[in-house]
Design brief:
The chain has 261 residues and is of the alpha/beta class. It contains nine helices and seven strands. It starts with 6 loop residues before the first strand and ends in a 9-residue tail after the last helix.
């Protein structure tokens, strides 16, 4: 119960890795608010599961690419829980299309959700923390694609995650004065519904399993230990840092160019 008495927000917490992170925080005692944009039934299911643990939970619909929706979410959570101790910037999109085929509209949307969203979520939550004198923890969820040039049609996604790594360091330095810590988790290729729907994943999974030092894809549960540590007071000396949890993939991975999509 390392997070007993703490209140958390997990953006994109209704499915995939976000769902696993939200449940992991709740198991350690946190009250959890999760943001969702689509699939309300999944959000309601996660809330019910958290409440069965005896924790408070709420789900708020909102587009994390829009500042008005972010401000509305933070206001509602702050009013409901009375404070915000933990923010997990998890919401992200990763439409796969090769670099030469991407449109301005598609790239703008990826940057809005994946980079602008965490920027303003962090700003809004940090303002609330400062107002309430909360020495909180902000955790950005990045990707191994920020460290590798993997040619599978995720150039805009990779760019936003690289930006998120840098944003972590800069914002962490600025907010340290207030006792607010900002860290980043760089996750490996994970078995989530969204990822497994990507074209060619069956081929890539077969190749990757032979190349990874830990020969499997990641699961949401693989990331909860680090998440809880970063969210708890045990990590009070850690800020501006990016931690990689990817089965060793970014240390060794060499991926051949895929067939033309």
């Amino acid at each position: 119960m390392k997070l007993k008495g703490k209140a958390a927000i997990v953006t994109g917490g209704n499915r995939g890795i976000g769902k696993g992170l939200a449940l992991g925080l709740a198991r350690e005692g946190a009250e959890v608010a999760l943001n969702w944009l689509n699939h309300r039934e999944e959000a309601d299911s996660v809330v019910a599961e958290i409440r069965e643990m005896g924790r408070e939970a709420m789900a708020i619909q909102g587009d994390m690419g829009k500042v008005a929706d972010i401000e509305n979410m933070v206001r509602k959570v702050s009013e409901q829980f009375g404070k915000i101790d933990i923010l997990v910037n998890n919401a992200a999109i990763y439409p796969s299309k090769m670099f030469l085929d991407k449109t301005e509209e598609e790239v703008d949307r990826v940057f809005a959700v994946n980079l602008k969203g965490p920027f303003f979520c962090t700003q809004c939550v940090a303002k609330d923390m400062v107002k309430r004198s909360i020495k909180g923890s902000i955790i950005n969820i990045s990707s191994g694609h920020s460290l590798l040039g993997v040619p599978i049609g995720l150039s805009d996604y990779a760019a936003t995650k690289g930006g998120l790594n840098t944003l972590t360091r800069v914002i962490g330095a600025e907010l340290a004065h207030y006792g607010i810590r900002v860290n980043c988790m760089i996750l490996g290729l994970s078995r989530t519904p969204g990822m497994m729907r990507q074209e060619g994943m069956d081929m890539f999974e077969k190749y990757l399993l032979s190349a990874f030092p830990v020969p499997r894809l990641g699961e949401p549960e693989d990331y909860i230990g680090l998440l809880v540590w970063l969210a708890s007071d045990e990590s009070s000396y850690s800020t501006c840092s990016c931690f990689t949890v990817d089965g060793g993939a970014t240390n060794v991975l060499l991926m051949p160019r895929p067939p033309a999509v």
